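Methods: holo model generation. Sequences were used as deposited, without trimming of termini or removal of tags, and paired with ligand SMILES retrieved from the corresponding compound records. Each pair was processed once, and we did not select among multiple samples. The sequence and pyridoxal-5'-phosphate SMILES for this entry were:
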Amino acid sequence: MAAALNGELAAGGSPLPEMLSAKGLRAYFPMRGILGQSAEARNCEINATIGTAFEEDGSALCLECLESMLRLPSHAFLYAPSAGVPELRKAWREMLDLKNPSLRGQKCSLPVVTHALTHALSVAGQLLVDPRDKIILPDLYWDNYELLFDEGCGASLQTFPTFVKGGFNVAAMAKRLLAPGDKKVLLLNFPNNPTGYTATDTEAHAIRDAILHAAEAGKRVVVILDDAYFGLVYAPGVRSESLFPDLAGLHPRVLVVKLDGPTKEDYVWGFRVGFMTFGMQGAEDIHYRALEAKAAGLVRATISSASNIAQQLLLQAYRDPAYAAQKAGKFAILKARYDRIRELLAAHPEYAGAFEPMPFNSGYFMCVRPIGVDAEAVRKRLLTEYGTGTIVLSGLLRLAYSSVPLARLDALFANLYQAIRQVRDASAAPGRPAANNAGGG
Ligand SMILES: Cc1ncc(COP(=O)(O)O)c(C=O)c1O
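and the model returned the structure below.
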């Protein structure tokens, strides 16, 4: 079955098989096993195939106490297909066009449903990344990538400095793409965790051009887009669409996989539903169906299928006429916090002597670099003396303003300022060694 799918991937001389990892080439969806045989028997009068249980009247057998909690039909208690609930996959595909107008009319795969973004990253890793491959990414990244790609795939993260002159360091990324080696795996995450940065429109074009340049130079480029925070862009001139439409039709040697989902976009962190969608210039239905089957096989091998209840709830939400307005309302809450942070930073010039905000324009977070003091010492001081929790990463303090009410933002920054001054004063006291700023970001 894997060989048959690989044959389909190679149809028309496509270089797709060479984009996949060895594991990806071995992956297949077991169409002829229990699932396939069950599908064939779907319309039988007596169906003794799959391991689910039904009432005497043929409805799904479920506990009434659970059923009464949910306004969903009892079939929501059954397994979802490994590739996801078909109507939800279709709805998400249609929503991709609405959210990314440049995608309209472009060919890409149907989204395959995963157990949210983390699992989508893991499936993408298995499908596309071999042990000892290098993954190119900015040096400020979500720390779970280490478990996912270093530990999970045996690959290594090859970082470049995220920022140069207050913007995204496209030149450093381009240099990595052109380094020796035929296959390049690039991982981009906009809006970014931890920085809350999204490439500007100009930078997005430059990123696309750098990827095109690498492909024209003969590289096979696999781009993994972690679009977990898609849509949360607050500033003008910042790329509001995914990079997916730019890359899906870019070059026959550029394979892009978009990983996204409702976790952050629709504020359902615990639902555990995500999507992976493939795009490549020249790829046809036969190629996309084969990629989907391989991804679904990896889903089947790891979690069998994502939560049907969560998928059914989301499908109903996306069909709800109130969905768009409610979503816009939640966006406005987060944007108001972003705007307030901009205002308060402008209103407190003294803060500039204590910390430097990293560029930010989107998402859930922003980062600051404390000046002349150790970020970890500041974090501890904030925790013990100011009742204020933050995260330290690569010598920076990450502030998740997504979780701080508007009315507390001024206090968050005032506490930060005071804590930095205190740590500085303490380390300048006679007999104390000077603080070492362990900056690495
Ligand atoms: C950049 C990034 N990608 C992926 C994820 C994982 O998302 P999910 O909860 O859907 O697995 C997170 C969660 O914090 C994240 O910050």
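Residues 2 and 26 are 6 Å apart (CA to CA).
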